[in-house]
């Protein structure tokens, strides 16, 4: 027997892996993982074939993440605002028909984000191929027959965000750089900050005298 006042071992190792008359299966198995993977792949392929030559995904805006911790990061949002759609010369109803996501709840809080998403919409419009509703009647805004024939279905995200990679700047090590002592400069600056008030009081005292 073990020593000291320990907890009495009372673990239950008899898991119910099989259904029985006493109750249902208590452990969830993933034996269909490979089959589900294939089913999802076939479902994605059938959806793409159904909407072809349109892209499967919609155009999303570039938004900043919430909270002070993550607001410097930019990601794809739910949809464009009415103000952004209007600035790009579109209407919300028409934008939804040409693969642009619209979010009626989002609001623009800065001119920079508004300009960024309007430029994103204009770039999408320049690359957009609009098929005519009726083949015989081509209206204004529709693409030509040559463009419609040459179009291919887009795979992946529509206008994905490109992260800016800061390049490494190379420089020569000069005598001026080696002469600088960072720790010494920091220590002197800290000391100057400490005695700044005392020196100011001494200077005022001398002026009064």
Structural descriptors:
3% strand, 209 residues, mainly alpha, single chain
Describe this structure in words.
- By secondary structure, the protein is mainly alpha-helical.
- It has a domain at 55-128.
- Helix content is 43%, strand content 3%.
- The chain has helices spanning 33-51, 67-70, 82-87, 92-97, 111-127, 145-150, 175-179, 182-208, and strands spanning 62-64, 74-76.
- The protein has a two-stranded antiparallel ribbon with strand order 1-2.
- It is flat and about 95 Å long.
- The chain starts with 32 loop residues before the first helix and ends with a helix.
Strand and helix layout:
Layout (H helix, E strand, L loop, with lengths): L32 H19 L10 E3 L2 H4 L3 E3 L5 H6 L4 H6 L13 H17 L17 H6 L24 H5 L2 H27 L1
Antiparallel strand pairs: 1-2
What percent of the residues sit in helical stretches (DSSP H or I)?
A: 40-55%
Low-confidence parts? none
Largest sheet: 2 strands, antiparallel
Total number of β-strand segments?
2
Order of helices and strands: HEHEHHHHHH
Query: What proportion of the residues form beta strands (DSSP E)?
Result: under 5%
Structural class: mainly alpha
If you compute it from the alpha carbons, what radius of gyration comes out, rounded to the nearest whole angstrom?
A: 33 Å
Q: Mean pLDDT across all residues, rounded?
A: 88
Please report the number of helical segments.
8
Order the strands across the largest sheet as they lie in space.
Answer: 1-2
- Assembly form of the protein: single chain
Which term fits the overall shape?
Answer: flat
End-to-end distance: 89 Å
GO cellular component, one term: cytosolic large ribosomal subunit
Organism: Eucampia antarctica
Keywords: Ribonucleoprotein, Ribosomal protein
Pfam families: Ribosomal_L13e
């Amino acid at each position: 027997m073990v020593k000291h006042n320990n907890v009495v071992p009372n673990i239950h190792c008899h898991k119910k892996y099989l259904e029985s008359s006493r109750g249902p299966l208590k452990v969830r198995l993933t034996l269909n993982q490979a089959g589900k993977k294939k089913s999802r792949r076939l479902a994605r392929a059938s959806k793409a074939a159904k909407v072809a030559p349109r892209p499967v995904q919609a155009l999303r805006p570039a938004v900043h993440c919430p909270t002070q911790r993550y607001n410097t990061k930019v990601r794809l949002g739910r949809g464009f605002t009415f103000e952004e759609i209007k600035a790009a010369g579109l209407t919300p109803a028409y934008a939804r028909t040409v693969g642009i996501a619209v979010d009626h709840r989002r609001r623009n809080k800065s001119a920079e984000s508004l300009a960024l998403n309007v430029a994103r919409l204009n770039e999408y419009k320049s690359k957009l191929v609009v098929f005519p509703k009726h083949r015989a009647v081509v209206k204004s805004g529709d693409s030509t027959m040559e463009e419609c024939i040459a179009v291919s279905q887009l795979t992946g995200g529509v206008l994905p965000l490109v992260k800016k990679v800061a390049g490494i700047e190379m420089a020569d090590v000069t005598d001026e750089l080696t002469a600088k002592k960072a720790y010494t400069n920091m220590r002197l600056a800290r000391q100057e900050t400490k005695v700044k008030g005392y020196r100011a009081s001494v200077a005022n005292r001398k002026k009064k005298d």
